[in-house]
Design a protein that fits this description.
- The structure is a single chain.
- The chain has seven helices and no strands.
- Helix 1 crosses helix 7, helix 2 crosses helix 3 and helix 2 packs across helix 6.
- The two termini are 23 Å apart.
- Bound molecules: protoporphyrin IX containing ZN.
- Belongs to the globin family.
- This is Alpha D globin.
Amino acid sequence: MLTAEEQSLIQKVWEKTASHRDEIGGESLYRLFTSYPSTKTYFPHFDLSCGSEQIRSHGKKVVAALSTAVKSLDNLSQALSELSSLHAYNLRVDPVNFKLLSQCIQVVLALHLGKEYTPEVHAAFDKFLSAVAAVLSEKYR
Ligand code: ZNH
């Protein structure tokens, strides 16, 4: 799991995104749909044009879940348990897609943070987002 150093790095960097965090969610989703069009099939009921209200509001929800995760780095399984059930039993999102979204979130974080997105921060976020994806995938069978 994440080392104590990685945990504090993630918390510090996440704090820095506070004022533009909601946009990070929407931008990551738009990037997901553009770069990996197959992911759009999960959102047939959404207006997927750039900056649409649905992308923005869904982006806020995803980011809020990540904020919960950042606060519970020691206990991700429990913190994301409901979300994990939702994805496994109701939404049935193929877990490969979690990696694709993680990728897009990283690119958007890098765009927002510029030089502050150092290789160390990148490595820590990669581990963090993989851990979130693992929890969201753990109830599939
Ligand atoms: Zn998901 C939903 C989160 C990934 C698909 N999500 C959701 C929500 C949240 C989330 C928070 C909301 C819930 C409620 O409402 O309750 N996700 C999340 C996260 C992640 C994810 C954190 C990672 C990181 N998802 C994902 C993917 C996909 C998805 C990858 C595909 C592609 N989700 C989804 C859907 C939904 C969700 C489809 C539903 C939407 C609506 O609204 O309808």
